[in-house]
Amino acid sequence: MSIAIYILVMAGVTYLIRMLPFALFRRKIKSRFFKSVLYYIPFAVLSAMTFPSIFYATGNTVTAVIGTVVAVILAYFKLPLIVVSVAACAAAFVAGLFL
Predict the structure, then answer these.
(1) Interior angle at CA 58, CA 53 and CA 61, nearest 5
(2) Is 54 exposed, middle or buried (0-12, 13-18, 19+ CB in 10 A)?
(3) pTM higher than 0.90 for the full model?
(4) Comparing C-alpha atoms, which of 67, 61, 98, 99 is closest to residue 84?
């Protein structure tokens, strides 16, 4: 019974999050600043959700930091996402073998 309530609450919250912008913003947004804020919100939220969990994924903070450093360096050079993620995983794995 409680699982059904949880699912209903999650469905309601999801619906409200998607419906509220349509209800509140009837006219086109003209503010350049507000447009830029709305543009970067998904990236900021994804980063805030993902980045902290990176350091707990391996069970060893040192190997996680090594993998993160490799990922940041490769991303800086604009390599494809699959290359960055595989290299970061490989670096963390190899570091875990030695540490």
Answers:
(1) 75
(2) middle
(3) no
(4) 67
Residue 10 in tokens: 């999650």
| Distance (Å, whole) CA 11 – CA 72 | 36
Q: Give domain limits for the chain.
A: 2-98
Q: Which residue has the tokens 């940041």?
A: 72
Q: What is the mean pLDDT of the chain?
A: 90
Alpha helices in the chain (DSSP H): 2-24, 32-54, 61-76, 81-98
Mean pLDDT over 76-89 rounds to: 96
